[in-house]
């Protein structure tokens, strides 16, 4: 059928067959009634004053990111090509040699590890995660205080984790099986060996290094700081403070290592095949990163401080209530408010306070699991105006429970 005949045929179709017409036209002729899936499925939505938690679906994407995802969904492209092109842009922004979009920071850790082990050898790619007898290296050195769960991503590639505490222990642990020296930025203050010393040891032994900075913007400079410092691979989450797709992240670093990491990722069938990111997320991640870098961070910080001050001022006059503005030093480095109460004056446990805020209207999530007679909250994930609701609701519950 020639195109003209095809179109003529379509226009002759009755209205009920309009669906196929929509596909060809690429737009919706009659918009269907808007569905409210949250209501339909009975899903609780809430004000997120807790922060970036995977269990709470972490962050909301800005309109520009949603637009990129929608636009991306409308065309076919070659998956490798979109990774190539976006990789170049991300690398430019983050001042690394190369970059790729991964399925979260965890996937960046897995794929980066895979790339370190296999290099460009496709036979090795298909042998992961079984390293014995393959000639691949099999050990990763990690400081004890840095081995707190996220390091397990590396073991997806088959490696064994060797924990150390001192420089002397690192030197003793290094042998012909050592594949990588891994660093968890969040725990940098806790570890005996700091960034530069870690890099120096690696350099001396000609070993590659990787750093996990998953939740470590702000400050925005962290996007390039560790690339410039000399880490061979840097892994970050896309859907935390950057507010890209929650299931996206970035692996950046040395050109040959990124190329090697991609051998284990879709469209190929290596260990990363189940960590697929399609063009929508790749494009969404790129736009989120670009928007994040172009944000006026000083202004944004001031707005966060104002919101924290508003909540603080609303609750701190209540008898027996004490507040403190806290700034986590590395990860989730945004102002947060700690609210404590004397349980003789305010008869509440942290759990019941959390539950009252959760079951109230609107539902609110705060951090109600850290310290007794205390909740903590952040404001960087709030929608405009929600800080007033949060302040009022917390005050209400504190006053109600006051003897
Ligand atoms: C969140 C986090 C991860 C995992 O990141 P995802 O993007 O959820 O895959 C890894 N490491 C650290 C330190 C994190 O905070």
What do you see in this structure?
This protein is an alpha/beta fold. The chain folds into three domains: 33 residues, no CATH class; 217 residues, 3-Layer(aba) Sandwich (Aspartate Aminotransferase, domain 2), CATH 3.40.640.10; 104 residues, Aspartate Aminotransferase, domain 1. The strands form three sheets. A seven-stranded mixed sheet has the order 2-8-7-6-5-3-4, sandwiched between helices. It starts with a helix and ends with a helix. Pyridoxal-5'-phosphate binds next to helix 6.
Strand content: 5-15%
**Total tally of structural domains:** 3
Portion of residues within helices: 40-55%
* Shape, per Cα inertia axes: globular
Task: State the helix count.
Answer: 16
CATH fold-level label of the largest domain: Aspartate Aminotransferase, domain 2
Low-confidence stretches: 1-25
Query: From the helix content, strand content and strand pairing, which structural class follows?
Result: alpha/beta
CATH first level of the largest domain: Alpha Beta
The molecules bound to the chains, other than polymers, are: pyridoxal-5'-phosphate
Average of per-residue pLDDT values: 93
Listing every helix as H and every strand as E from the N terminus to the C terminus, the arrangement reads: HHHEHHEHHEHEHEHEHEEHHHEEHEEH
- Number of distinct beta strands: 12
Strand neighbour order, sheet with most strands: 2-8-7-6-5-3-4
Oligomer: single chain
Distance between the termini: 82 Å
CATH architecture of the largest domain: 3-Layer(aba) Sandwich
Rounded Rg: 25 Å
Biggest pleated-sheet summary: 7 strands, mixed
């Amino acid at each position: 059928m020639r195109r003209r005949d095809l179109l003529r045929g379509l226009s002759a179709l009755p209205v009920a067959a309009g669906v196929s017409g929509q596909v060809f036209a690429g737009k919706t002729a009659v918009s269907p009634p808007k569905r409210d899936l949250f209501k339909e499925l009975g899903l609780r939505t809430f004000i997120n004053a807790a922060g970036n938690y995977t269990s709470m679906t972490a962050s909301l994407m800005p309109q520009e990111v949603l637009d990129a995802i929608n636009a991306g969904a409308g065309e076919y492209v070659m998956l490798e090509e979109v990774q190539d092109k976006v990789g170049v842009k991300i690398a430019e922004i983050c001042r690394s040699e190369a970059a790729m979009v991964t399925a979260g920071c965890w996937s960046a850790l897995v794929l980066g590890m895979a790339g370190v082990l296999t290099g460009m050898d496709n036979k090795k790619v298909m042998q992961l995660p079984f390293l014995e007898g393959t000639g691949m290296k099999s050990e990763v050195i990690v400081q004890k205080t840095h081995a707190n769960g996220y390091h397990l991503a590396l073991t997806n590639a088959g490696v064994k984790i060797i924990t150390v505490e001192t420089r002397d222990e690192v030197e003793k642990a290094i042998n012909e099986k050592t594949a990588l020296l891994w660093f968890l930025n969040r725990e940098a203050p806790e570890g005996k060996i700091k960034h530069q010393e870690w890099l120096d040891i690696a350099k001396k032994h000609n070993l590659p290094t990787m750093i996990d900075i998953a939740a470590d913007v702000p400050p925005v400079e962290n996007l390039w700081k560790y690339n410039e410092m000399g880490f061979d691979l840097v892994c970050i989450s896309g859907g935390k403070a950057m507010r890209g797709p929650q299931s996206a992240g970035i692996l950046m670093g040395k050109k040959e290592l990124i190329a090697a990491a991609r051998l284990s990722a879709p469209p190929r069938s290596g260990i990363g095949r189940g960590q697929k990111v399609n063009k929508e997320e790749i494009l969404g991640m790129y736009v989120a990163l670009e928007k994040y870098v172009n944000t006026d961070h000083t202004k944004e910080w001031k707005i966060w401080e104002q919101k924290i001050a508003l909540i603080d001022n609303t609750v701190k006059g209540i008898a027996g209530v004490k507040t403190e503005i806290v700034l986590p030093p590395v990860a989730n480095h945004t102002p947060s408010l700690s609210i404590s109460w004397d349980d003789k004056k305010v008869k509440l446990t942290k759990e019941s306070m959390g539950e009252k805020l959760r079951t109230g209207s609107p539902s609110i999530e705060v951090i109600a699991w850290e310290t007794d007679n205390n909740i903590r909250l952040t404001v960087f994930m709030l929608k405009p105006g929600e800080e007033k609701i949060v302040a009022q609701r917390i005050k209400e519950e504190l006053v109600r429970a006051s003897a």
